[in-house]
Design brief:
6 helices, single chain, alpha/beta
Length: 246
């Protein structure tokens, strides 16, 4: 495995010459100070890493030849979707980054009654683009070659009213109220969907709607955690119990 990895959004093929995007070119030449003949890895989300060899360098561009490829399997056998109530500030960035590091398959941002962040369509599109960039950066760091899906934000009522895609999943919702401890659940044979509220948690109406949609209330102890802590702890516990941390 090559030590340095960069994301490249275009198709990659053996023996083809590729010009690096501007951001990667700057990092490769100014930070890593790569020279002609040096090698590193590119990935585009198709499950492979591609060995790239620098064949041309100039002030404004870096050209590389794809000389090899190898399949990368750093994905968890446990398929988890995190349905996360929108958190304020840079908390969503942190949640997405850590969730990708912990092997998440997809993240569904949710607009809820107690979400501090309010998004119109334009802001939602900009946020989504930014969050996907955060996920890609986390994949670069962790060695993942399949990029988790960061889905468009949806209102919680809209999302819960259309459960076809997760109908056969184990559906869990975190609550500070009395509930089953997640450590006592049996290992699921299906994907997992896990709901975590924003600052202030889910409203009573939202909780009841989730329960009526077959979500099982769970917790992992007596202490109430911040939303950004709860998501990371929950994913870590599930990977330890049922995934590739076991």
């Amino acid at each position: 495995m090559e030590e340095n990895r960069f994301y490249h959004s275009e198709k990659l093929e053996l023996k083809h010459v590729v010009e690096l995007i501007a951001q990667t070119h700057i990092h490769a030449t100014k930070v890593l100070r790569l020279k002609v003949g040096d090698q590193f890895a590119l990935f585009n989300g198709d499950g492979y890493d591609y060995v790239a060899k620098v064949i041309e360098l100039s002030k404004h561009k870096t050209s590389v030849e794809i000389i090899d490829r190898y399949q990368v399997n750093h994905e968890s056998p446990l398929k988890i979707t995190l349905a996360q109530g929108l958190a304020a500030g840079d908390k969503m960035d942190w949640i997405i980054q850590k969730a990708v590091e912990l092997g998440i398959q997809s993240i569904q941002p949710l607009l809820t009654e107690r979400s501090i962040v309010k998004l119109d369509r334009e802001r939602a599109d900009k946020k989504l683009e930014h969050w996907r960039t955060v996920a890609i950066s986390a994949c670069e760091q962790t060695g993942r070659s399949i990029i988790p899906d960061i889905l468009s934000p949806l209102h919680i009522v809209q999302w819960l009213s259309n459960q076809n895609q997760i109908a056969n999943s184990l559906k869990l919702i975190l609550t500070p109220a009395k509930a089953q401890n997640i450590n006592h659940l049996e290992k699921p044979s299906s994907p997992v969907v896990f709901m975590v509220g924003p600052e202030g948690g889910f409203s009573e109406k939202e909780m009841n709607l989730a329960l009526s949609s077959s979500f099982v209330p769970v917790n992992f102890g007596k202490r109430v955690l911040r939303t950004e802590t709860a998501s990371v702890v929950a994913l870590s516990i599930m990977q330890n119990l049922w995934g590739d941390f076991a």
